[in-house]
Design brief:
This protein has 10 helices and 9 strands. By secondary structure, it is an alpha/beta fold. The chain has a single domain, classed as NAD(P)-binding Rossmann-like Domain (Rossmann fold), CATH 3.40.50. It has a 7-stranded parallel sheet, with helices on both faces. Helix 4 packs parallel to helix 5 and helix 7 packs across helix 10.
């Protein structure tokens, strides 16, 4: 697939997976627009992208916005698509997480995670879809998570939001297909990003036991899988073999995962009880 001259909008494009995708597609000749909240990170990312551009005609742009705010999200898309730069590809990479025991998490955490991860995905899509429908072409890529198809202990807020992203993506794929718009959803496992480092000390021990069995990918590995997925117009983008296996088992053999998770959680609980008795 030739990305040269295509306009790619990447939310959460100033760090992690979004930043890695922006770098790959800049090197492939695309016009890149990144959206995130922190201006300093946006400026740093733009400076990095400048070193990767392959043509002086490439447009590299950034916009600071809180995508969980509908008006800010709409204004960001409107500004970035003005002056002859309609959206060809939208990659929704903005997201947060905050693990913890359900009964200990403040209600506000659930609201914030849903606002950023789900509504921060929904608002940019609503902003680009009218233009894509009118042009009868486009590609929307939504980044969910392994926790978006598999309920994981300790991620009650995150799983709910990422399951919602998957559900939205599945419906949009059906509704937008007649207009020539492709919709993909990405399910990354744990990925070495600033977000992972933030959440690591917050994970309950049961969550560490479960997630410790899976390989952590780099942002670059996930980014390359996303670019391949766009080229192949994949509906579900599963970045590595383990994720593909988990997806197959969770959708076809969910009972096996329930057994495994219950076993891991029980082991941690028994160890904790023994420690308390000692």
């Amino acid at each position: 697939m030739d990305f040269h001259g295509q306009h790619v909008i990447i939310t959460g494009g100033s760090s992690g997976i979004g930043r890695a995708v922006a770098g790959l597609l800049t090197a492939r000749g695309a016009h890149i627009s990144i959206v995130a909240r922190r201006q300093q990170l946006l400026d740093e990312t733009l400076a990095e992208l400048e070193t990767l551009r392959v043509s002086p005609s490439q447009r590299l742009a950034a916009y600071s916005a809180d995508l969980s705010d509908r008006e800010q999200a709409e204004q960001a898309i409107m500004s970035l698509t003005a002056n002859g730069y309609p959206p060809d590809i939208l990659i929704n990479s903005a997201g947060i997480t905050h693990p913890g025991y359900f009964e200990q998490l403040p209600a506000e955490i659930f609201r914030t995670v849903m606002e950023v991860d789900y509504f921060g995905t929904l608002y940019p899509i609503r902003a680009v879809v009218p233009t894509m429908m009118a042009r009868r072409r486009g590609h929307i890529v939504n980044i969910s998570s392994v926790a978006g198809f598999l309920g994981v202990f300790g991620y009650s807020a995150y799983c709910a939001a990422k399951f919602a992203v998957r559900g939205l993506s599945d419906v949009l794929r059906q509704e937008l297909k007649p207009y020539g718009i492709h919709v993909s959803v990405v399910f990354p496992p744990d990925t070495d990003t600033p977000q992972l480092h933030y959440e690591e000390p917050l994970k309950p021990p049961e969550t560490r036991r479960i997630s410790g069995t899976a390989k952590t990918l780099t942002a670059g590995e996930v980014a390359r899988a996303i670019v391949r997925g766009i080229e192949r117009r994949q509906v579900y983008i599963l970045p590595n073999f383990e994720t593909r296996l988990y997806f197959l088992l969770a959708n076809g053999f969910s009972g096996l995962f329930r057994w495994y998770f219950d076993r891991a959680i029980a082991q941690v609980r028994r160890a904790r009880e023994k420690g308390a008795e000692a």
